[in-house]
Specification:
Helix content is 30%, strand content 39%. The protein is built from 3 helices and 5 strands; from the N terminus they run ααβαββββ. The protein has a 5-stranded mixed β-sheet with strand order 1-5-4-3-2. A hairpin with a 3-residue loop joins strand 2 and strand 3. The relative contact order is 0.17.
């Protein structure tokens, strides 16, 4: 492994750990942790969600996401991107929603966000599971 490979591996591990700790804090209801994770010029790519750190945090804290149960399935990271895959459940929807969040990282800050959201179907429709 070259020094560049090692540096990329270390940065990937660092990004993954930032996402893991951030997810745990958000899942516990601590949205203030996003103030340390999001870049001031945070760009949101999901329709209807605002860009900008403060606007995005306010939006998330007031959305149904704020009271949802979050169950982490996996985190995948490299030196520039972090992918977080999890189940989100809200009252009245026991199967929940499968969510994949994709973050572009620069110097330990989330600078861009995309997501993919899918309702979890009946178990007989997914014999191998969603998670």
């Amino acid at each position: 492994m070259t020094n560049n490979d090692l540096a990329a591996h270390d940065l990937a591990a660092y990004n993954k750990e930032l996402a893991r700790r951030g997810f745990a804090e958000v899942a516990a209801g601590n949205f203030d942790v996003l103030r340390t994770l999001l870049h001031d010029d945070f760009v949101e790519h999901s329709p209807g969600n605002p860009s900008g750190k403060d606007a995005f945090i306010e939006f998330i804290a007031e959305s149904p996401f704020a009271s949802a149960g979050l169950e982490l399935a996996r985190i995948i990271a490299d030196e520039e991107y972090v992918v977080v895959h999890y189940r989100m459940t809200v009252p009245g929807e026991p199967r929940g929603t499968a969510v994949v969040d994709i973050f572009r990282m620069i110097e330990g800050k989330m600078v861009e966000h995309w997501d993919v959201v899918q309702a979890v179907p009946d178990p007989e429709q997914i014999p191998h599971g969603m998670f």
